[in-house]
Specification:
It is a single chain. By secondary structure, the protein is α/β, with parallel strands linked by helices. It has 2 domains: 133 residues, Rossmann fold (3-Layer(aba) Sandwich), CATH 3.40.50.1010; 240 residues, P-loop containing nucleotide triphosphate hydrolases (Rossmann fold, 3-Layer(aba) Sandwich), CATH 3.40.50. It is built from 12 helices and 17 strands. The strands form 4 sheets. The chain has a 6-stranded mixed sheet with strand order 3-4-2-1-5-6. A 6-stranded parallel sheet has the order 14-11-15-16-10-17, sandwiched between helices. β8 and β9 form a beta hairpin. α6 packs parallel to α7. It starts with a strand and ends with a helix.
């Protein structure tokens, strides 16, 4: 049965191409939504970019007919920009209430056709349903597939997937790739002074250091070591690459460099001010100073790996790097706001995207399509700790990435369950 879907602004911001993802049903965009998109389109960052993209799509369709009467879509449905009978651009009525009002009006007018308001705002869905309107969250990119995978099993499980997974047999751990490849995992004792504290961390290090794996997703609660392991593996691979490149140059074999996988830099990014979008705002100072508060967890992890200022020797040996500041000043590590990644090409980078659960599926697509030849990208996050409005554990970018890559042989997803930070941190995570 054909339906009418009324779209809220946040749906178009979440996915500007959502208009084409409702099969042969009719789409109605309230004029209020167009007004909100117009306000959001100004500025830099992912939300203004999405607002502009949505408006461009609507405008391109407008050229094919009369948008107030309905434009035929290739999916079989129609797109209409509608105005409710009490529309007043100067009205103090809340935008949300105007959208709900239009849905109620359409329900009365189209009695034989179900009218469904689609919104990612829980408050809008609650208010609309209380007023008798049928409501839905945007379901196209919702996924709970990650709940099936990511654990280390003791039986030979494939579940039809080809991505890297781990199998425990007695005291040994094996990696499974594709349909037939099975290899024993080397038990790493120490990487950049960091030793895996449990079987999960050992498997995570194996995936992070594996040349055949281009994309790694590490999930888990605070204290499981996701970011620390990703940084330690990145530092190890960068040092190894630099030594190998220097060796080839010393032997005058530069032509062989292009045939090897190597890394030129570690790029670390986190969503900045996730509550209002990926924008670093108007804090004083340059970009680096603005990023300081948001990137402090990265600096803390780097100091654990290389030894902080109060730790001139680590495990009795002089530290190789003076501080995290030295790594950044030397260009070995770059701290980058996600806002600035769009449009770049990033070859031969080891990229870490921390707190990836606060990204939209569109953001993850933007980031991963920037990866050039020889780049490895790591996504870390806690799928149950979402700070971004309109996202939940089934609709965020990290869950979406896992669902799309789970059958790719160059991908590994691991969910780290056991905390390695301290007994107190683990117990707090369980109790609080």
């Amino acid at each position: 049965m054909k339906k009418i879907y009324v779209l809220d602004t946040n749906v178009l911001v979440h996915d500007p191409e959502c208009i084409f993802k409702f099969e042969d049903n009719d789409i109605v965009i309230p004029i209020t939504v167009v007004e909100e998109l117009d306000k959001l389109k100004k500025g830099h960052g992912d939300i203004p970019f999405s607002a502009r993209s949505a408006l461009r799509i609507i405008d391109s369709l407008r050229e094919k007919g009369n948008i107030s009467k309905g434009i035929k879509l290739e999916t079989g449905g129609t797109l209409t920009v509608a105005i409710d009978k009490n529309y007043d651009p100067c009205s103090p009525v809340l935008m949300d209430n105007r959208i709900i009002s239009l849905a109620i009006e359409l329900s009365k007018r189209k009695k034989k056709t179900p009218v469904i308001l689609v919104s990612k705002d829980t408050a809008v869905r609650i208010k609309a349903e209380a007023l008798g309107v049928e409501v839905q969250d945007y379901r196209h990119d919702k996924t709970y597939l990650f709940q099936k995978y990511g654990l280390i099993r003791e039986d030979d499980y494939e579940n039809g997937i080809k991505s890297l997974r781990y199998l425990k047999k007695g005291d040994e751990i094996y990696r499974l790739i594709g349909e037939k490849t099975i290899e024993q995992v080397k038990k790493w004792k120490n990487i950049m002074g960091i030793s895996p504290k449990n079987m999960e961390q050992l498997c995570a290090l194996d995936a992070l250091l594996n040349d055949r794996i281009d994309v790694v997703a590490l999930t888990g609660k605070a204290g499981t070591g996701k970011t620390l392991l990703a940084l330690a593996a990145g530092m190890y691979l960068l040092e190894k690459s630099m030594a190998r490149m220097q060796s080839l140059k010393n032997q005058q074999r530069e032509q062989e460099i292009g045939n090897e996988r190597y890394f030129e830099q570690i790029l670390v990014a986190r969503p900045v001010i996730p509550i209002v979008g990926q924008d670093i705002g108007f804090l004083p100072g340059d970009v680096e100073e603005k990023l300081g508060p948001w990137m402090q967890p990265i600096y803390d992890n780097l100091d654990v790996i290389i030894g902080g200022p109060a730790d001139p020797k680590k495990e009795g040996k002089p530290v190789k790097y003076k501080s995290s500041r030295y790594l950044i000043d030397s260009g070995m590590i770059q701290i980058e706001p996600l806002t600035y990644i769009r449009g770049r090409s990033l070859p031969h980078r080891y990229i870490i995207v921390d707190e990836a659960q606060n990204l939209r599926p569109l953001d993850v697509k933007t980031i991963i399509t920037r990866c050039g030849e020889g780049t490895k990208i790591i996504f870390t996050g806690d799928l149950y700790q979402i700070d971004t409005p309109y996202l939940d554990f089934g609709s965020n970018g990290l869950a979406y990435l896992i669902s799309r890559f789970i059958n790719e042989e160059n991908f590994c997803y691991l969910n780290l369950v056991h905390s390695a930070r301290s007994r107190l941190a683990e117990r707090a995570a369980e109790l609080l």
